Amino acid sequence: MKYKRILLKLSGEALMGDQQYGIDPKKLAEYAAEIKKVHDLGVEIAIVIGGGNIFRGVAGANVGMDRVQGDYMGMLATIINGLALQGALEGSEMLTRLQTALKIEAVAEPYIKRRAVRHLEKGRIVIFGAGTGNPYFTTDTAAVLRGVEINADVILKGTRVDGVYTADPEKDPTAIKFENITFSDVLKKGLNVMDTTAFTLSRENELPIVVFDMNKENNLLKVCQGNDSVGTTVS
Ligand code: UDP
């Protein structure tokens, strides 16, 4: 396997499947099956999950809600998704731990780096909930932060687009996909990989990012095996 320890970032929106809101159990089961394939091969897996399928702080602020209040609602949404994912993974015979940046002790462990690493070493999948625990951040930033902290080999950003393109492929049919690109070229070309905070943190710590389509069967496995035809590697 190319990567021994991965930080998988899943967006909350991806969990909606074909629905307009919430969590689609079919999608959860699909993700659990894909994650199991790499788990069975001994890859250590940490996961950060977003909350956009339930609530985004910015959306609240747009309709007059206090931004900080909205962001805490968003963080709580990521914990709900984390619990759902934990259930799906355990239903597929994987051991997991949910650790959260906001303490919610009846349902999850508090985030403790050394403990998270120990879980990974024992083959448990660690899900990080509540993002960074701070308003004005995103779960992409939380993913890179946790990835750096636990010494992950790579950030795997599973989305519905299969890589980084010259333009938005959902809007521009002439857009071309990069197989590999450097952090500097992403900046020079003004491409959108992650928000600036997340991207800068990744770049400064030389932690590569692979953007790939998580909705295609075996893609996660192929990325972990180092198959360059899947997704785009930013390094
Ligand atoms: N959030 C936050 N701090 C963090 C991570 C998330 O305040 O460190 C809030 C923020 O309101 C964000 C929401 O949680 O909009 C959901 O996260 P995100 O939008 O990153 O989820 P995704 O787009 O991946 O579904």
From TrEMBL:
Its EC number is 2.7.4.22. It comes from Myroides pelagicus. This is Uridylate kinase. UMP binds at residues 51, 71, 132-139. Residues 4-213 form the Aspartate/glutamate/uridylate kinase domain. HAMAP family: PyrH_B. Keywords: ATP-binding, Cytoplasm, Kinase, Nucleotide-binding, Pyrimidine biosynthesis, Transferase. GO terms for cellular component: cytoplasm. The keyword Transmembrane helix does not apply. Its main location: cytoplasm. GO terms for biological process: 'de novo' CTP biosynthetic process; UDP biosynthetic process. One of its GO terms (molecular function) is UMP kinase activity. Belongs to the UMP kinase family. SUPFAM superfamilies: Carbamate kinase-like. ATP binds at residues 9-12, 52, 56, 159, 165, 168. Homohexamer. Catalyzes the reversible phosphorylation of UMP to UDP. InterPro entries: AceGlu_kinase-like_sf, Asp/Glu/Uridylate_kinase, Uridylate_kinase, Uridylate_kinase_bac. Inhibited by UTP. The keyword Kinase applies. It catalyses: UMP + ATP = UDP + ADP. It is found in: Cytoplasm. Pathway: Pyrimidine metabolism; CTP biosynthesis via de novo pathway; UDP from UMP (UMPK route): step 1/1.
